[in-house]
Write a structure and sequence with these properties.
The strands form three sheets. Strands 4-3-5-12-6 form a five-stranded mixed β-sheet. A five-stranded mixed β-sheet has the order 9-8-10-7-11. It contains ten helices and twelve strands. By secondary structure, it is of the alpha/beta class. The relative contact order is 0.13. The longest helix has 28 residues. Strand 1 and strand 2 form a beta hairpin.
């Protein structure tokens, strides 16, 4: 028999478990009459009686017992599979740079989990920008001067980054409020953006030490914490370390950096609720705490 109505089978199974159309109606939020009509239609489609109607309820016929065993097993399997599929739909992959992952996202994961308990996040950290289009349960959070998006993707420029020079709170050799000239004459640390090189070219004619170069801001920040010199990095990535007393800010660039944080998520055909939950969590965090 093809094309049996799934809802009718659920009502049949409920009536069989309870031995009552009335109780089946309570369980399924339907009237006793609606249950009775659905069962009668099911019996017509199958060409057999499924229930013996009795004064105090109903009982399964032999045909009803055989159908009930199969329907109950299939409904359990269907509900279990649907639950597993729903769990997969709650998983969201966030593509970020290693620095964003370590210095911004990781410290906020406990808060995100508390706000959205059923959400499952997978963090994919890579220095390389993802070249393929985002899948339906993926988002990207990157920083740079530009960020291109493909068809079916939404991009939001969250903030423009402020650049600051920071050093270990225990590094006292440069003084409390050193001038930029004194900072440039000190041991300098920079990442792949080579920001000290640009400032040295603009402001310094005297011979200076070659900056210590790293390929990521997080490594440059760790070097500054370990008293290896003064790093120039976005404030967003060091605000937590400044608040914790691991670093101190000794200079801030008054010129616009031209560097931004970009949030990207898929918009076609339909963006899933878990993805939008993560998008809103990130948007709200930047709205409330733009520098970290």
């Amino acid at each position: 028999m093809k094309n049996l109505n799934l809802n009718s089978l659920r009502m049949f199974a409920s009536a069989a478990r309870h031995g009552s159309f009335l109780k089946a109606g309570v369980e399924t939020n339907l009237s006793q009459g609606a249950i009775s009509q659905r069962i009668k239609q099911l019996e017509i489609e199958l060409g057999v009686m499924l229930f013996e109607r009795e004064p105090r309820g109903v009982s399964l016929t032999q045909a009803g017992q055989e159908l009930f065993q199969t329907v109950e097993t299939c409904l359990e399997m269907l509900d279990k599979t649907a639950s597993q599929v729903q769990q997969l739909g709650n998983e969201v992959t966030v593509h970020v740079s290693p620095t964003i992952a370590r210095k911004w996202l990781a410290p906020r994961l406990p808060m995100f989990s508390k706000l959205k308990p059923g959400l499952k996040l997978t963090i994919e950290a890579s220095a390389q920008v993802l070249e393929r289009p985002l899948h339906q349960n993926e988002i990207a959070l990157r920083h740079g001067k530009t960020f291109g998006t493909g068809r079916g993707q939404q991009m939001q420029q969250l903030i423009e980054l402020e650049l600051v020079a920071v050093c270990s709170s225990d590094l006292s050799s440069i003084g409390a409020q050193p001038s930029l000239e004194k900072i440039l004459a000190s041991s300098l640390i920079q990442d792949s953006h080579r920001r000290w090189d640009k400032l040295l070219a603009r402001h310094c004619s005297q011979e200076t030490l070659e900056p210590l170069n790293f390929n990521s801001a997080s490594l440059a920040i760790d070097a500054a914490i370990n008293k290896q010199g003064i790093a120039i990095v976005p404030l967003l990535f060091v605000q937590d370390d400044i608040d914790a007393g691991h670093l101190r800010e000794v200079w801030r660039d008054e010129q616009a950096s031209g560097e931004h944080i970009f949030l990207v998520w898929p918009t076609q055909p339909v963006t899933s609720k878990p993805v939008m939950d993560v998008v809103h969590l990130i948007q709200n965090e930047f709205c409330q705490n733009p520098n970290g």
